[in-house]
Design goal:
By secondary structure, the chain is an alpha+beta fold. It has helices at about 5, 25, 35-50, 70-80, 90-95, 130-135, 155-160, 215-225, 260-280, 310-320, 355-360, 405-410, 425-440, 455-460; strands spanning about 10-15, 60-65, 100-105, 165-175, 175-185, 190-195, 195-210, 210-215, 215, 240-245, 290-295, 295-300, 340-345, 365-370, 380-385, 390-400, 505-515, 515-525, 530-540, 545, 555-560, 570, 575, 585-590, 595-605. The radius of gyration is 28 Å and the shape is globular.
């Protein structure tokens, strides 16, 4: 092991004569959140990353679970040990049993810049991010319309470590030049040693004027590489926070066993989707590109734009920026506009997505409003009444206005998972109460026996229970449309069975076009080497099977719509060149009182 690692030493904070904050108090500022600790961790980390996003850049947000062993474990031992005398952090015992670490990495962010010392004032216009994350607690963030407040939420990083220890590795621009910084930090319990009282806070670094200061530049880079921390590309800024001896939590419910790394990774991927989706969808400044890994394996993070569970929320969110598509709860005195609200009804999932269900904030079809502030991060999901029509779900979004954002921030606990009116007064109390009562009033779906029904609502109701009939063709092409090897339409020649097949990759959703119900399904096409024609072939289903020749009205394919370019191609067939996009939506107008199934027939263009 290099001498460099062994020169890093722990410094423990003594209790000052005028008094100090014990680290237990900082850790307990979070109280006992309703949310799973890993969810709180993801929300806090992502909030910090979004607040630090570089203008015009996407943010790469990566979570990784790793088991330390061999040379890697030895390097970490050499860096972290010996632990502070008398601290009882438990680092030695953790290293002896072999531990897992969790790293949360962001790139496309500013990194933790500003002064390295808490007693050094920042220059005009300089953000003291390093000091606020590593040193201080309770200092308001200076990020306009950001997600954070006073920085108490960072206690979650220490809470999910069995040793209450983290290591911070950041690269930032500091006063005109690139600087890398690495430091360890701990929030153990208060204790007494050698007749001196200590707060329980510790820092691991190089000695400077009697305190542990961060390693910088080449020294920080060499230590980070020895520890196997994520690298920075040339000129890149960002931060990695490593949680030592991560507590992965338990599965909850009847299966209250310790999570395996795979189960924890799946939970993380699921909770990322439910809590960060507004920052994951396009277009969005500072879009989050999220990834999750455990011990070398990747877990895909669900795509909010392809998820039927999240679709009503995504569509409602997009309405917030379209004039006339949202409603505004308003006041007579400033702030007049306190926020915007939109609600969307869609088809409920036929079968829940197994990965999304792992960390779902509610059970069953959506009947909720996602509350958020200007940072576009989920606060919580407020439940409303179930939709009276079986098979229909609805999702709403309420986002505070820029003028009222601070009032909602003041109503949030350290975990940012509620808007609490107790303790508020004056304008803040009026604003938050109005928002909460407005949301509750607008979450009651229209009942079937009300006096007035719009044409769209009337058209949707009888279709709700039939949507499960829209099925994708089987991978080998023998989908439910054709029977006995014959095509639905004569003259269409199916390609050979060896050809890769298009797939319906997204459950059908319900929408309204010109007052009529339309079913839209997402289709993904293979990268064919030649121009290929695909026919969407819907058919009416009756009790005995698929009815091809009947007096009943037939389903009609309206159009194909490119998901990436917005290009529209009308009719039931689509001709795809090798260079064409591969992801499309197909829209089908179903007949009344009938179930339909959809086949995708493929032929080479000759």
């Amino acid at each position: 092991m290099t001498e460099l690692l062994t020169t890093a030493t722990w410094w423990s904070q003594p209790v000052a004569a005028e008094g100090s904050t014990a680290s237990e108090g900082i850790r307990r500022q979070l109280g006992k959140p309703r949310l799973d600790p890993l969810t709180v961790l993801v929300r806090e980390a992502a909030q910090n990353s979004c607040d630090a996003a570089l203008p015009g850049h996407d943010v790469e947000f990566a979570v990784k679970i790793s088991k330390l062993s061999g040379r890697s474990l030895q390097n970490w031992r050499d860096f972290l040990l010996p632990e502070p005398a008398g601290s009882r952090l438990g680092l030695e015992q953790a290293m002896d049993r072999g531990i897992r670490i969790l790293t949360i990495t962001d790139r496309g962010t500013t990194g933790l810049g500003g002064p390295l010392r808490a007693d050094e004032p920042p220059l005009p216009g300089e953000r003291a991010d390093f000091v606020k994350f590593v040193r201080n607690v309770g200092e308001r963030k200076d990020v306009t319309l950001g997600g954070g407040s006073y920085g108490f939420g960072k206690g979650i990083f220490y809470n999910v470590s069995r040793c209450h220890v983290i290591v911070v590795d950041s690269q930032c621009m500091f006063r005109g030049r690139l600087q890398r910084r690495l430091i360890g930090a701990a929030m153990g319990d208060a204790y007494e040693a050698d007749k001196t009282r200590f707060t329980g806070r510790h820092w691991l670094g190089v000695d400077e004027d009697g305190i542990a200061q961060a390693l910088v530049d080449d020294a920080a880079t060499r230590v980070a590489e020895s520890l196997g921390l994520p690298r920075f590309r040339e000129g890149e800024t960002g931060t990695t926070v490593t949680v030592i001896d991560i507590d992965l939590g338990n599965n909850g419910g009847t299966d209250d066993t310790q999570r395996s790394p795979e189960q924890a990774a799946r939970f993380l991927a699921s909770t990322i989707a439910w809590n960060l989706w507004p920052r994951m969808i396009t277009p969005s400044p500072g879009r989050l590109r999220c990834s999750v890994k455990f011990e070398g394996f990747s877990v895909p993070v669900p795509d909010p734009e392809r998820s039927i569970e999240l679709r009503p929320f995504v569509e409602a969110f997009r309405k917030l920026d379209v004039e006339g598509e949202y409603v505004v709860p308003s006041r007579k005195t400033p702030p007049v506009e306190i926020g915007r609200f939109a609600k969307v009804e869609t088809m409920a999932p036929i079968k829940s997505d197994e990965l999304l269900a792992v960390a779902a904030p509610f059970e069953g079809p959506a009947r909720h409003c996602a509350r958020m502030r200007q940072a576009n991060l989920i606060v919580d999901y407020v439940a409303g009444n179930a939709h009276p029509e079986e098979g229909i779900q609805y999702g709403a979004v309420f986002r505070s206005s820029a003028e009222a954002d601070q009032y909602f921030s003041d109503a949030e606990p350290p975990t940012h998972d509620d808007w609490v009116t107790s303790g508020l007064h004056g304008t803040a109390l009026g604003v938050v109460r109005l928002a909460n009562s407005f949301i509750r009033a607008n979450l009651s779906p229209a009942q079937p026996d009300r006096g007035v029904t719009t044409a769209s609502e009337a058209a949707l109701a009888p279709l709700a229970n039939r949507l499960s009939g829209l099925l994708a063709a089987a991978p080998d092409g023998d989908g439910p449309g054709p029977e006995n090897g014959q095509e639905r339409k004569r003259g269409k020649r199916r390609s050979s069975g060896s050809r890769s097949r298009p797939r319906i990759v997204e459950a059908p959703r319900l929408t309204v076009i010109d007052g009529e119900p339309v079913i839209v399904a997402g289709v993904s096409f293979p990268a064919w080497p030649v121009t290929t024609v695909v026919e969407a072939a819907p058919a009416v289903v009756i009790d005995s099977g698929i009815e091809r020749e009947t007096d009943l009205a037939q389903p009609e394919v309206l159009y194909w719509s490119c998901r990436t370019r917005g290009e529209l191609r009308r009719g039931e067939t689509i001709s795809l060149d090798p260079a064409d996009p591969r992801d499309w939506d197909v829209a089908v107008r179903p007949p009344e009182d009938a179930v339909i199934r959809l086949a995708l027939n493929v032929d080479d263009a000759r």
